[in-house]
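This part of the workshop introduces the protein records we will be handling. An example says more than a description, so a record of this kind follows.
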Amino acid sequence: MLKKLIAEGLGTLILVLFGCGAAVLMGDHIGMTGISLAFGISIVAAAYGLGAISGAHLNPAVSLGMVMASRMTLREFGLYAVAQCAGALIGATILMVIASGQADYTVAVNGLGQNGYGEGYLGEYSVGAALVFEFVMTFLFVTVILGATGNGAAPGFAGLAIGLTLAGIHLVGINVTGVSVNPARSFGPAVLVGGKALADLWLFIVAPLAGGALAGLVHAMGFTRAPA
């Protein structure tokens, strides 16, 4: 189990460092499309590099979906979630150290690619819109993951399918919430940025966990599961 937890922590670190790093360090140069690709590529890298060890969930919502689909236990979910949040926090800390090397960077002004909604955040979408987006997109994301890693899936292509799906979600929704679909990814930057990012964090825990749980339940019921 320790080896699995290390892999989950390291994989989530990669996700935050690549994805949020693209937003903070290169956002002005690569735009939202580039940031979207960075998040997707990070998943592909972690899935193929670490997936054989832990499954490369990198996301408490994914792990909860696995619980609901009877692919892991609640105890394993708890341990995975702690490792994922720890990895995200370490990744965000590394990003902050790197970004702080630029003379005009401050966490308060430039942030760490944190998620948010409402006044002052990107498209200034309402809390209702943010909740719907995060819930629906996490449901779809976890549904793809369960299908790509389940019976009848094309062997060797799960990481690519999952990474491309995450990139697609970002292409749709960066302007809405910055795209979480992952409580750990939101947790790391929010803890270090504080303020509004920390106040908004509840949404990026509740909505993705609910979406992931529903995806696992629907899968367990057989509606999105290939025949054995």
